[in-house]
Amino acid sequence: MTQDQTPQVPTPPMGRPQLRQWELTVTAVADAPVNMRRVTFTAPDIAEFTYRPGQAIVMMLPTADGEFGRRDYTIRSLDTEKGLLDVDFFMHGDANNLTPGPAFARDAKIGDKINVRGPRGGASFREDADWHLITGDECCLPAIFHILETMPAKAQMHVLIEVDNTDSEIALNDIREGLTATQITWLHRGDIKAGPSDFMAQAVAGYHLPHGRGHAILIGETSNVRKQRQNLLSRGLTREQIASEGYWRPGRIGGHDHVED
């Protein structure tokens, strides 16, 4: 994508937050675990970019029909000293027919420019909670890992991650050492297809809620997130104790779903 192809991000409809616009320039592209492609960006005003780990940016990415479409991607990291922002793209789908996000990550070259808005989203760590529960699938790994890397080391955290098999697992110490109160449980789908199912909802239903005030971060496929949210609400958590966002759902073209019911 060249500079003259860079689209303007459309103005949000009335009622939506007015997110700041940024013009990002690609500085590096590399593979990252697990089955991710990391694109590193910079911008002249990147020093003014502030966010909470777990938040995303709205990217206008080229589509197969030659147009541009909105896609939300989690911020993987920000190096304020070097002025570099990383975004990891999950490389899913047919290698010869990738969706816009993976296709952009595959083809991105140093010097390419893209307009984005953000940051946005409420799925982030809460300092006032006694314990946290995070759930997600493969596409949520950048958000989950970034939260684990940046939260207080002694925070009580239980993470449920849905993946195909052991090939997608990463040891906790490889993410960050010293997380003495954090436990990751890798849930293997096996023959269950990624997408709407009761798989993660059953795991959440079987999770014993610790004592104290908790906070849940539920991300992943929208209908799965909704089931998990409803289960936790039925067990006594309040709406304010649950941050839930649908990262994707079959047939949806771009964007995140705010799951509030």
Question: Which tags fit this structure?
Answer:
261 residues, alpha/beta, seven-stranded antiparallel β-sheet, six-stranded mixed β-sheet, FNR_nucleotide-bd, Siderophore-interacting protein, SIP_rossman_dom, Riboflavin_synthase-like_b-brl
Strand-helix topology:
Layout: E1 21-32, E2 36-42, E3 56-62, E4 68-74, E5 77-79, E6 84-90, H1 100-107, E7 113-120, E8 131-137, H2 141-150, E9 157-163, H3 172-175, E10 182-188, H4 199-205, E11 214-221, H5 222-234, E12 242-248, E13 257-258
Parallel strand pairs: 8-9, 8-11, 9-10, 11-12
Antiparallel strand pairs: 1-2, 1-7, 2-6, 3-4, 3-7, 5-6, 12-13
Helix pairs in contact: 4-5
| Arithmetic mean pLDDT | 91
Low-confidence stretches: none
User: What is the distance, rounded to the nearest whole angstrom, between the alpha carbons of the first and last residues?
Assistant: 39 Å
Structural class: alpha/beta
CA gyration radius, whole angstroms: 18 Å
Approximately how much helix is present in the residues?
Answer: 10-25%
Strand tally is 13
What is the strand arrangement across the widest sheet? 4-3-7-1-2-6-5
Number of helices: 5
Assign an overall shape: globular
- Fraction in beta strands: 25-35%
For the largest beta-sheet, the strand count, sense and barrel status come to: 7 strands, antiparallel
Name the helix and strand elements from N-terminus to C-terminus, one letter apiece: EEEEEEHEEHEHEHEHEE
